[in-house]
Every structure is written in structure tokens, then in C-alpha cells.
């Protein structure tokens, strides 16, 4: 189970998860991915990643594995650095193309 007291650190084809005591909880390897830059835990089972290929990818978390769920190609004109969810459920992404986009969350 993943809770909200964790820090997600993106990297090349992996995401390291660290608890608030700075101890490594686990590393999840991301299949067939580019360099992951932005990570957001949408809920206990769904993870969003942004990467240098300009895509937003939705993953389902199953134990130590991520299963591909959906992908938004060319979401920006540059690498996606940040992903957050607003209180009203929208997803906001920021990119090195100097833009911020607001997306409808369909979950």
C-alpha cells in the first residue's frame, strides 16, 4: 500500500519511493519509458508520469509493478516537469516549453 507520506523521485526508467524518514521504501521500474521527470500519485492505485518524450502516461500500480493504462502523446512541446491534481479534480502539467496546461481528469 502506498500512502501520502512518501516522496517519489523520478529517474531513467525507474521511480524511487522514499518515506518521510528518508529510507528507501522501494524502486519501481517503469517499462518502456523515456526519462521520467514528473510523477504524481493520483490515487492509491494510479500513478501519472511526465517525461522527456512530451507524454503523460497513466499507470496502474500492482505491488512492485506498473501496468500501462493510457498515454497522452505530445501533451506539450517540451519535457513535462510537473504534474498535480487540483481540488476540483483537474490535472495541471508544466513543461520546459514554458506552458502550463489544465486537463480534465477522467478517473
Structural class determined from secondary elements: mainly beta
| CATH topology-level fold name | Lipocalin
Q: Which sequence of strands runs across the widest sheet? A: 4-5-6-7
- How many separate structural domains? 1
Largest sheet: 4 strands, antiparallel
Based on the coordinates given, report the CATH architecture. Answer: Beta Barrel
Helical residues, percent: under 10%
How many DSSP-defined strands? Answer: 10
Q: Count of helices?
A: 0
Radius of gyration from CA coordinates: 13 Å
CATH class value = Mainly Beta
Order of helix and strand elements from N to C terminus: EEEEEEEEEE
Distance between the termini: 19 Å
* Percentage of residues in DSSP E strands: over 45%
Shape: globular
Overall average pLDDT: 85
Low-confidence stretches: none
Topology overview:
Layout: E1 6-11, E2 14-19, E3 24-29, E4 36-43, E5 46-51, E6 56-62, E7 65-72, E8 80-85, E9 91-95, E10 100-103
Antiparallel strand pairs: 1-2, 2-3, 4-5, 5-6, 6-7, 8-9, 9-10
